[in-house]
Every structure is written in C-alpha cells, then in structure tokens.
Write a structure and sequence with these properties.
With about 230 residues, the protein is α+β, with helices and mostly antiparallel strands. Helices cover about 30% and strands about 30% of the residues. Strands 3-2-1-4-5-8-7-6 form an 8-stranded mixed sheet, with helices on both faces.
C-alpha cells in the first residue's frame, strides 16, 4: 500500500474536518426534495468499474422526481477509511446530470461515524454544497466500541459514543427489524438527521426511501452496465 497516498489522503481529510459543522443550515420545514446516493462496483477483464446512482424524491410525498447515474473505470485503490476518494469522481459526475439540485443528500454509507469523522457523506458535502446525512445498513466498529441495541419499537435509538464523543446513532426504524446507523454528514445535526430519516420510512423497508431506491437502482444499473462494458 502506498504510504504517500495514505499521507496525502489523511492531510485532505484533516483539512476538511476542520470545516465540518454539525449544525443545521436548513430547517426541516424548508426541505422539499432529498437525493439518495449509492454506488456499486464490479470487476471485468481485470479492471474495476463503478456506478453512482442518485434518486431524488419529494420529501413530503416520497415520489421520485428524478433519477441519474454515472459510471466508469475505478482508478483509485480501495483503502479502508479513504473510500470517499474512490467514490467522489462518480458522485460529482452524477450530480452534474441533475436538472434540479435537491435540498439535501442522503448517502448509503457513513458520515461522521467514521475512523476520522470523514465518511462519504461528510467528505462529499464539500463538493455538493448541501447538507448531508449518512445511513448505513451495517455497523462500522471504531476503537472496539460496540453499539447498544435500541428498544424494539420504531423510533427508538441509542447514541454511539466513543471517547466521550457522539459519532452517530443506532436507530430502530421498524419494530422487529434490525436497526440502521445514522450519522451527520455536514451542515446538519443528529436530531434533525434522525427526524428526516424517520420521515422517509415506509412499510417496505427499514431504510429511508431515498437510500433504498438508490440502492435498488445501483443493482439494476450495475447489471445493465456489466453486460455492456
């Protein structure tokens, strides 16, 4: 593994972290649209490819208003903790295809709940210039800290506290279903992030609608593209 790359990536993360603000720059009442963002990868002929799918939904009706995607060869190596550098080019390319920018981006992945507080939702915010939220299906274990399982009722949660700092939240969105892991991306606080996520839950999934639809879209687009590339 290239130590120079890790040093360079770490320096970028440190510079961005100093600018992170976990406070609202938009009120919930002002939100009209939310974009779900997800990526998927595949290997072909010894090369790695990826696609980024963005699905924009109306915050109040949960109806899809726009879908876009980008794809291409992945040239940045996979390095744990630095996934954003691998994903950002495709995210930015997909965002540029949107006809109308959403009020907020919700990522299938982590934000502040990250080894260096710089998951994809946080890192990408500086290139999107919008509030962001991270929603992960599985727990990223940091410093051997386990999460505390919330009570078995929709809306129950426990905070993920590491070294006396809140990194994120374990949120039960549906009774009798595994929780998800919510964290701030940037320019939003954790309580507001939680409220927005819960407002985007329906009976079809434990995941909020924007993330679930983006996840489904990446599987569909990856299948189509992998047969073409």
């Amino acid at each position: 593994m290239n130590e120079n790359i890790i040093r360079e990536f770490s320096n970028v993360q440190d510079e961005l972290l100093a600018k992170v603000k976990l406070e609202n720059i938009i009120q919930k009442e002002e939100i009209q649209s939310i974009a779900g963002v997800d990526l998927a990868y595949w290997d072909q002929d010894g090369k790695a490819y990826g696609t980024c799918c963005i699905v924009v939904v109306d915050y109040h009706t949960q109806e899809v208003t726009e879908k876009v995607y980008s794809y291409g060869e992945i040239t940045v190596p996979y390095i744990p903790g630095f996934l954003a550098f691998r994903e950002l080019p495709l995210i930015i390319e997909a965002v540029q295809k949107l006809t109308k920018l959403p009020n907020l981006y919700m990522f299938d992945g982590n934000g502040y709940l990250h080894y260096r507080h710089m998951g994809i939702a946080t890192h990408a915010s500086f290139f999107l210039n919008k509030p962001t939220i991270g929603v992960a299906k599985s727990y990223l274990k940091i410093k051997d800290t386990d999460f505390i399982m919330p009570e078995n009722e929709a809306g129950c949660y426990t905070d993920i506290v590491i070294d006396n700092e809140v990194y994120g939240r374990t949120l039960r969105t549906t009774k009798n279903v595994k929780p998800i892991f919510v964290s701030c991306g940037n320019w939003i606080d954790l309580d507001t992030s939680t409220d927005i996520v819960l407002n985007c839950i329906n009976k079809e999934s434990r995941l909020p609608v924007p993330v679930r639809l983006a996840d489904l879209e990446t599987h569909k687009v990856r299948k189509q593209l992998s047969e073409l590339v």
